Amino acid sequence: MQVTMTVNGAEVTRDVEPRQLLVHFLRDTLGLTGTHWGCDTSNCGTCVVLVDGEPVKSCTALAAMTAGHEVRTVEGLADGATLDPVQQGFMEEHGLQCGFCTPGMMLTARALLDRDPDPDEQTIREAISGQICRCTGYATIVRSVRWAARHGAGAAAEAPAIPAPAAPPAAEEVPA
Amino acid sequence: MQVPAPFDYVRATSVADALDLLERHGPESRVVAGGHSLLPMMKLRLARPEWLIDINDVAELDHVTRDGDWLRVGALTRHATLLSSALVGELFPIVHDAERVIADPVVRNRGTIGGSLGQADPAEDLTTVCDVLRARVVVTGRAGERVIGMDEFHRGPYETACEQSELITEVRFPIRPRSGSAYEKVERRVGDWAVAAAGALLVLADDGTVADATIGLTALGLEGCAVDAAAVLLGAHPSEEVFAEAGRLAAAASSPVEDQRGPVDYKRHLADELTRRVLRSAATRAGAGVLTATTGG
Question: What's the pTM value of the predicted model, to 2 decimals?
Answer without folding.
Answer: 0.92
